[in-house]
Design brief:
SH3-like_bac-type; 46% strand; SH3b domain-containing protein; mainly beta
Length: 87
């Protein structure tokens, strides 16, 4: 049985869906934190090194105007800043 969690992020603007688009972490001089939500205040799920393959689910702007990507990285789903995402 799979548990599905739905999160609502007020003041977020979603960009057109890119559901399932292949991507990877690129141009990162450091490991990127995969987070529960689209902001640095959300807890870190794991960190992703440069070159990590991703499935890009969508991109969105948070309430601070920062662009974040909802991704799946090897079964772990969460948000990373959109800057180090290459599709």
């Amino acid at each position: 049985m799979a548990l599905v969690l739905l999160f609502f992020y007020p003041h977020s603007i979603w960009l057109p869906s890119l559901l399932g688009s292949p991507a990877n972490v690129c141009n990162a001089d450091f490991q990127v934190s995969l987070r529960v939500g689209p902001n640095q205040r959300f807890p870190v799920i794991t960190t992703l090194p440069n070159g990590t393959p991703l499935q890009l689910i969508r991109r969105q702007f948070n309430q601070l105007g920062q662009e974040w990507s909802l991704v799946n990285a090897g079964g772990a789903e969460g948000f990373i800043p959109s800057g180090p995402v290459c599709s």
